[in-house]
Amino acid sequence: MAVGSITSSNNVMKMKKIACFVVVILVIFPLSTFAGDTKPNLTKDYYMKTCPRFEEITNNIVTAKQAETPTTAAAVVRVFFHDCMVDGCDASTLVASNHFHGKAERDADINLSLPGDAFDLVTRIKTALELECPGIVSCSDILATSARNLIKMTGGPFYEVPLGRKDGLVSQASRVIGNLALPNMTMTHIIDLFKIKGFTIQEMVALVGAHTIGFSHCSEFSNRIFHYSKTQPVDPKMNPKYAEALKTLCANYTKDPTMAAFNDVMTPGKFDNMYYKNLQRGLGLLATDQAMADDPRTKPIVELYAANETAFFNDFAKAMLKVSLYEIKTDKDGEIRHRCDTFNNQKGT
Fold it and tell me: Which distant-in-sequence residues (6+ apart) come within 8 Å of 279 by Cβ?
C-alpha cells in the first residue's frame, strides 16, 4: 500500500473518532450550550413534587378574587407587565419601599396608579402557598400564572407558563424611568422601547391589546378632551359623542385623581378583539392607542386583529409567553421570598 494511501486511511480513522467524540459531547451538552443560549430550563411541572397543589391553590384564589372584584384581571395583567418590563419578570414591582432599601419600583410615579387588587391577590396566594409548601414557590411565578389564569378567565387565550423563576434582589424606583410607555410618547418612541427589549412591532400591537380589559385614570387622557389645542378643544381623532361622555365622567378628575374610564368602552370586562375595533371608530381612550390605528407601521396589524380575533389571540399568547420569560432570575441571581413585598434580606440592594 502506498504511503499516501496509509496517510489517507489514518486521517479517515481520526475523523471518525473525532465525529464520535463530537456526537458524545453534543448528547451530554446540548448545542444551545455552545450557542450562548443561557435561558434557564423552566418547566411547566416545576412544582409537581415540591408543591403539587400549586396550580389548584392559585386558581381557586384567583377565581374567588375575580368574582369578588371583576377589575382584578386588568389589575394583575398591568402589574405583571410593569414588573417584567423593568429588569425582567422578577416580582420586583411587588416590593414595598422602606428605610432599608429606599424607594422601590412600585412607588415610581408611573406605578403609583397600579391597582391594589393585584397586590392583594398575590399576597393571598403567597400566604396560602407558604402554609402548604413554605419557601418553595416564587412570587414571580405566582404573578405570571395569575395573569395567565385571569386572561383565560375573562375570555382570552390560554398559554403555558413555564415555572421556576426566582424573585429579584433589586427594586429601585429610579430603574423604572424609560422602561415603560407613557401616554404622551410618540409611536416611534414606543416601538423603539419595545425593540430594545427584543419585541417586534406586531408583538407590541398584540400586547397592547390587553387594554381590552384595562382602565386608565382621567389624568392619562385629559389632554385629549380638555383644551386639546388653541383651535380645537377636543382631539379630532376621538369620536365626538365619546369625548363628551368622557368629559362628563372626568369633570372633577383634578379633585379626585382616582377617577378612571375603561379602555374598551364596549366590552370592558371581556377579553376580546373589540379594543381594535374601537380604535377604528375613534373610540381609543389613550392617544398612544389611537395612534396605532393611524401609523402605517401599526395600522395593518390593528386592522388584522379587528377583523380576526383568532389571529389576535394566537399572537397575544405567543407575545405574553415571551414577556413572561424576559430577563428572569434563577439560581443565585434571585431568591424565593418569604413575603412578596419584602426581600428576605431586609436591606435588599
Answer: 289, 290, 292, 293, 302, 306
What amino acid occupies position 19? A
215 sits in which H/E element: strand 215-217
Q: How wide is the angle at C-alpha 137 spanned by C-alphas 133 and 138, nearest 5°?
A: 150
Is there a contact between 312 and 276 (Cβ–Cβ < 8 Å)?
Answer: yes
Active site residue 211: no
> 163 in helix, strand or coil?
strand
CB–CB of 271/212 below 8 Å?
yes
Residue range 117-171, pLDDT digits in tens: 999 999 999 999 999 999 999 999 999 999 999 999 999 999 999 999 999 999 9
Residue 13 makes CB contacts below 8 A (sequence gap 6+) with none
Give buried/exposed letters for 312-336 (b at 16+ CB in 10 A, else e).
bbebbbebbebbbbbebbeeeebbb
Among candidate residues 102, 162, 96, the one with its CA nearest the CA of residue 337:
96
- DSSP code for 219: G
β-sheet bridge partners, residue 329: 166
Residues 248-259: tens digit of each pLDDT: 999 999 999 889
* Three-state secondary structure call for residue 262: strand
CA 183 to chain CA centroid, Å, is: 18
Instruction: Give the Cα-Cα-Cα angle 179, 180, 184 (nearest 5 degrees).
Output: 125
- Give the amino acid at 282: G
Cα–Cα distance, 332 to 21 (Å, whole number): 33
- Which residue of the set 82, 101, 211, 217 is catalytic? 82
Q: What pLDDT, in 10s, does the model give residues 278-324?
A: 999 999 999 999 999 999 999 999 999 999 999 999 999 999 999 99
Report residue 342: phi and psi, to 5°. -145, 135
C-alpha cell at 286: 389613550
Residues 6+ apart with CB under 8 A from 320: 147, 148, 151, 159, 207
Contact predicate 52/287, CB 8 Å: no
pTM of the model: 0.85
Q: Are 264 and 275 in contact (CB under 8 A)?
A: yes
